[in-house]
Design a protein that fits this description.
This protein is mostly beta strands. The protein has one domain (3-404): Tachylectin-2, Chain A (5 Propeller), CATH 2.115.10. Helix content is 10%, strand content 34%. The protein is built from four helices and 23 strands. The protein has helices at 3-24, 195-201, 231-234, 334-341, and strands spanning 43-50, 68-70, 76-80, 87-92, 109-116, 131-138, 141-147, 160-163, 174-180, 189-192, 205-208, 225-228, 241-243, 245-249, 276-282, 288-296, 302-304, 317-319, 325-333, 354-357, 367-373, 378-387, 396-404. The strands form six sheets. Strands 6-7-8-9-13 form a five-stranded mixed beta sheet. A four-stranded antiparallel beta sheet has the order 1-23-22-21, with no helix packed on it. Strands 2-3-4-5 form a four-stranded antiparallel beta sheet, with no helix packed on it. Strand 21 (367-373) and strand 22 form a beta hairpin. The longest helix has 22 residues, at 3-24. The N and C termini lie far apart (47 Å).
Length: 407
């Protein structure tokens, strides 16, 4: 891009930023839509598939943290491989199977091998980002959020890379690091806002994050939701810089979503020190923001470096009873987000109107990633280390798919 054109695009970006700020200060009424209730009638399990353990390119799927996103063409997905490598691959979605025997499920097949992206950032990696925490394909570019695994000082602000050509993971230019305005509170999943909500929330996309890595002082203590403005960084005019966000739901150590994080009272059934959220999205044609993840300690309480009832000695926080851990969901009213945007509520005031155990099919492994496709109504959920049939030494994640039946 020549200097004159780049300067022009930069000016357009600045004007867009000014318009965004103006829109954030102009309140919009919330659409009148029903709330979604999660039950056996509204969430239907439609089948699952496996991911091969073979090494392709720079990584393999063993010990994956499960960060996952569907491609816009709906027939393939991106996923992050081994935690030590932080490389991304693309695989084709096979025919789903409802067999109760995972060894009978079909395998996803590679379309692009695992390729490392963090080390190829145009700005280098001065803040030592070493974990990918969210992805989304927008306009054939792959937005990649990341964090430092152990940011003890809670001072890292770099969050985001852009793979400019999602069809060429190995050779594409990678711009960034960019900085999401919400920092680690926002630097996780990315989901599309349904059109009916875009005007009221002032954006096309939400970002969120909660407790998937250590150091609570840098995290939202409860699922977050920020509107995010990616248009300014998708045009290629900037190789780094700020991505504007607006906090619609956000918590902290001082203002957590629920008190008594160690559940000493045995009355905290919303969110504990063992809770983690891995994906959140607004269900089309509803006023509901569905977040999926895991939780624990709601029944037995939580201790620090205790010996559990099964004799296991914990290295950190853990539930008193070893089996007191499970996949969990939280549902929030999007109308609360509009109230926060209008200044009528604080970002730490929304509370879930429904929450509890997720997944009546599987209880043997935990949710580590997910993505939803609005056109099909399908929610793809990644479960950790459940496929133990491929190797006696390594287990692979599996993907289960659910039909979400909104109004």
């Amino acid at each position: 891009m020549n200097g004159l054109l780049k300067n022009l695009v930069g000016k357009i970006y600045l004007i867009s930023v000014m318009l965004f700020v103006a829109l954030q200060n102009h309140a919009q009424d919330a659409p009148k839509l029903p709330l979604f209730t999660l039950n056996q009638e509204t969430v239907e399990y439609v089948g699952g598939f496996r991911i091969p353990l073979s090494t392709k390119g720079e990584s393999r799927i063993a010990f994956s943290q499960g960060v996952f996103t569907l491609r816009q063409n709906q027939d393939s997905f991106f996923i992050v491989g081994h935690a030590h490598h932080q490389a991304i691959a693309e695989l084709a979605i096979p025919v789903l199977s409802k067999s109760k025997t995972i060894s009978e499920w079909n395998f996803a097949t590679f379309k692009q091998p695992f390729s490392s992206v963090i080390s190829r950032a145009s700005s280098g990696n001065p803040q030592k980002i070493d974990r990918i925490t969210g992805m989304k394909e927008i306009e054939h570019q792959l937005i990649v959020n990341g964090m430092e695994f152990y940011d003890a000082d809670a001072n890292v602000r770099d969050t985001t890379l852009i793979v400019r050509d999602a069809d060429q993971l190995v050779s594409s230019k990678i711009d960034g690091f960019f900085q999401l305005q919400g920092a680690a509170h926002a630097a996780g999943w990315i989901s599309e806002i349904p059109k009916v909500w875009q005007k009221a929330l002032g954006s096309e996309y939400l970002v969120g994050n909660a407790s998937t890595l250590a150091i609570n002082s840098r995290l939202s203590i409860g699922p977050s939701a920020f509107s995010a403005q990616f248009f300014g960084v998708l045009n290629g005019a900037e190789e780094s810089g700020l991505i504007l966000t607006n906090g619609l739901m956000d918590f902290s150590l001082k203002q957590p979503i629920a008190p008594d994080q160690y559940n000493k009272s045995l009355k905290n059934n919303i969110w504990t020190e063992l809770s983690a959220a891995h994906y959140g999205f607004i269900i089309p044609n509803t006023s509901s923001y569905l977040v999926v993840g895991k939780s624990g300690g709601h029944n037995s309480g939580i201790g620090y470096k205790i010996t559990q009832d099964n004799g296991r000695e914990c290295g950190g926080p853990c539930s008193v009873k070893a089996e007191d851990n499970y996949n969990y969901f939280w549902l929030f009213d999007v109308a609360d987000f509009v109230s926060v945007k209008a200044g009528e509520k604080q970002p730490y005031q929304p509370r879930p109107y429904q929450f509890g155990f997720f997944d009546t099919v599987n209880t043997s492994s935990y949710i580590i990633g997910a993505d939803y496709h609005k056109d099909t109504g399908l929610l793809y959920v990644v479960y950790s280390r459940e496929d133990k049939y491929q190797s006696q030494y390594e287990a692979a994640p599996v993907v289960r798919v659910y039909k979400i039946r909104g109004k």
